Amino acid sequence: MSTLNSPLWKRVDVVGDIAIVRAPFDYDSNKLMEFASVLQSKLKVNSVWARRPETRGDFRISDYLYLLGERRSETIYREHGCQYLVDFRKVFFSPKLSYEHRRIADLVRKGEVIINMFSGYGPFSILSFKVGRPTVVYSFDVNPWAYYYMMVNIELNRAWGVIPIYGDVFNKIYALDKVDRVIAPLPERAQESYEVALQVLKPGGCLHLFTEVEVNKSESPLHRVKSLYRGTIFSRVVRSAGPRRYHVVVDIKV
């Protein structure tokens, strides 16, 4: 198959002036370099990287392979009218969450107080503030680079109601009063996040919980999460995470 007809074209994300190829586990490295050369020529990007499917460590950083152009991974990423300075080798980054960033932002109401338990470089927090006009969005992250980029992006987007808090949310969250909404976008710690969020939400509050479920061959992941989390009012599969394993977002009414 020619490079122009490669199935890899469906796996390309353009982030600012950088192209990222979501490479399969076993993809031939020589073919990947050949594809990168054509990709850079066609899209006029300054840098091309490949991203492996897995994430590693407490910060959920993906493994990236430099392919071509400038050896740079920091760029400006634009989404839903906001702009974010981001280095995808230092913080968790996934354009696949763009839909959820907007969906949750559209649910936010003026005057709410919100906690984002795992804020990263700020897309959930900043867009929620810009769209919904809550009073404040307390935004936690334990990754020092995520905290740095979140502060930069608050300035870039003039999102003054987003309050960045560096450190472990599970140690610091109880210093806050009860809130109207909690965003918990870390599937690996979903159960712990769920239990904590129920303690800090006001009656009638809402939790947006990202979780991972494993199902039987004939079982629906959405049916599975509904049986796990009482008060579920909405659920959606975000992506496949492996054979019969799925990342699912669940909206839960307290």
Distinctive features:
globular; 7-stranded mixed beta sheet; 13 strands; 254 residues; single chain; GMP Synthetase, Chain A, domain 3; 2 domains
Give a verbal description of the structure.
The structure is a single chain. This protein is 28% helix and 37% strand. It has 254 residues and is an alpha/beta fold. The strands form three sheets. A seven-stranded mixed sheet has the order 9-8-7-10-11-13-12, with helices on both faces. The protein is globular, with a radius of gyration of 19 Å. The protein starts with 11 loop residues before the first strand and ends with a strand.
Could you write a compact summary of the structure shown?
The chain has helices at residues 29-43, 98-107, 123-132, 144-157, 169-172, 190-200, 221-228; strands at 12-15, 18-22, 47-56, 61-69, 74-79, 82-87, 113-116, 136-141, 162-166, 179-184, 201-214, 232-242, 245-253.
Q: What proportion of the residues is helical, as a percent range?
A: 25-40%
Number of helices, counting only DSSP H or I runs of 4 residues or more: 7
Identify the overall geometry. Answer: globular
Element pattern in H and E: EEHEEEEHEHEHEHEHEHEE
Question: What name goes with the CATH superfamily of the largest domain?
Answer: Vaccinia Virus protein VP39
Q: How many discrete domains? A: 2
- Largest sheet strand order: 9-8-7-10-11-13-12
Q: How far apart, in Å, are the first and last alpha carbons? A: 53 Å
**Annotated CATH architecture of the largest domain:** 3-Layer(aba) Sandwich
* Uncertain parts: none
Radius of gyration, whole Å: 19 Å
- At CATH level 3, the topology of the largest domain is Rossmann fold
Instruction: Describe the largest sheet.
Output: 7 strands, mixed
CATH classification, class level of the largest domain: Alpha Beta
Strand-pairing-aware structural class: alpha/beta
